[in-house]
User: What shape does this take?
Amino acid sequence: MPSSTSGTQDAHSVAARDQLHEPHFWTLPPWFHCHIQTHAGTTIFWLPIDSEEGRVYAQLTTDAARLPYIITHSTEIWHTTMPEGLYFYDEPANTRYCIRRHTAAFDGLLRLGLPDGSILWPEGSPQWEAVAQYYRDLGKNLGAIHADRGRY
Assistant: This one.
């Protein structure tokens, strides 16, 4: 909100207002991965697990400590307002699926999403299961899907 003296926005207020989802932290070998979605788009931070920073990061026990650390030490930072592809990691199959934009598969997946275009349904919900099954079904017939097995 605007400050009464300077007319500028308070960074903490802007961050709180723009935050759509809490940061999501994953370990996706060989990376630690933090995914933050806001009204302005999605930012993804990647930190190699085998680096010194990765070893220090692994010892952090709270999200409050993890977020500033991964933002400061990430070796790759991606920001997008529209992803080039949507990803799903099927742990039991050790397979990471990517559906590329401008394909029928991508459009079909977006129809399963939330009104704002995201597909971040709560894990285990019927909607989340529908999205996960969509990826698995497409993975059986790779076509427009790219699948990496055994790398993640």
Remarks:
- The beta strands are 24-28, 31-38, 41-48, 76-80, 85-90, 95-100, 145-149.
- The longest strand covers residues 31-38.
- Residues 85-149 form one domain.
